Amino acid sequence: MQYLILILAIFGSALGQFGSFRGFPSQNAYRPTPTPRPYQPQPQPQYTSPVRPFIAIRSQQKDTSPDGSYTFSYETENGISVSESGYPQAGPQGQTEVVQGRFSYPAPDGTPITIEYTADENGFHAQGAHIPTPPPIPEAIQRALAANPPGPDDEKYDRQPFQQRFDRPTYNANPFRRF
Q1: Residues 89-99: tens digit of each pLDDT
Q2: Are 97 and 120 in contact (CB under 8 A)?
Q3: pTM greater than 0.85
Q4: Which of 84, 106, 110, 173 would you call most buried, defined as having the most Cβ atoms within 10 angstroms of its Cβ?
Q5: How far apart are CA 125 and CA 131, in angstroms?
Q6: Is beta strand 81-91 parallel, antiparallel or unpaired with respect to 94-106?
Q7: Alpha carbons 152 and 141: distance in angstroms, whole number
Q8: Residue 167, class by beta-carbon neighbours within 10 Å (0-12 exposed, 13-18 middle, 19+ buried)?
Q9: Computed from CA positions of residues 136, 141, 147, 152, in that sequence, does the dihedral angle turn out positive or negative?
Q10: What pLDDT is attached to residue 88?
Q11: CB 74 within 8 A of CB 82
Q12: Which three-class secondary structure state does DSSP give residue 11?
C-alpha cells in the first residue's frame, strides 16, 4: 500500500510539471474560437501568439578559404544587410585578424543607418553618418598646449620614479617591523 501511494505521488508530481501554470500554454490558447452556427456572423479568430512575425532572408552568401580568409553577407526583407570579410595577417606580436565590413538597418523612424568598420591590431574603428563626434578643442586650450611644447627631458622625468624603484634589486632581510 505504501509503494502504491509513493508511485502515485511521483506520477502526480511529474504530471503536474506539464500544466499551464508552469509556463506551458493551455491546449486552447492558440486555437481560434469555435465557428458559430451558419446563420450567425462569424467573428475573426483571436490568436494570442507571442511569436514575432517571420522575416525572410533575401540573400545569403558565405565563403571560407583554407588560408583563414572569409567573406559573408546576408540581406533580410525588412532592410537589414550585413557584409564582412577578414583575413589573417602576420603582425609584430604574432598572427592577427584583419576584418572589414559594413551593416545597415532602418531606424524606428525609417532613417537608414549604415556603419562601415575595420578591426585589426589597432582596434575597432567604425564610421557612419549618425555616429556622434567629439566637440572641437577650445582655442584657449589649443594655445596653451602650443605654448608648452613637450621638452627633451619630459620622458626621462616621467620614467625616473619607475627606474628608481625597479631597476636595482632591493633586499629586505626582515620584512616584518618590530615595535
Answers
A1: 887 778 889 99
A2: yes
A3: no
A4: 84
A5: 11
A6: antiparallel
A7: 22
A8: exposed
A9: negative
A10: 93
A11: yes
A12: helix
How far from 117 is each of 95, 98, 104, 134, CA to CA, in Å?
20, 11, 12, 18
Residue corresponding to grid cell 483571436: 46
Alpha carbon distance 89, 98 (integer Å): 7
Cα–Cα dist 52/26, whole Å: 20
Residue type, position 34, single letter:
P
Cell numbers that stand for 78 in this block: 525588412
Q: How much is the pLDDT for 94?
A: 82
Give the whole-angstrom CA distance, residue 142 versus residue 161: 29
Q: How far apart are the first and last CA of the chain?
A: 77
Determine the pLDDT at residue 74: 95
The residue whose grid cell reads 578559404 is 65
CB atoms within 10 A of CB 154: 10
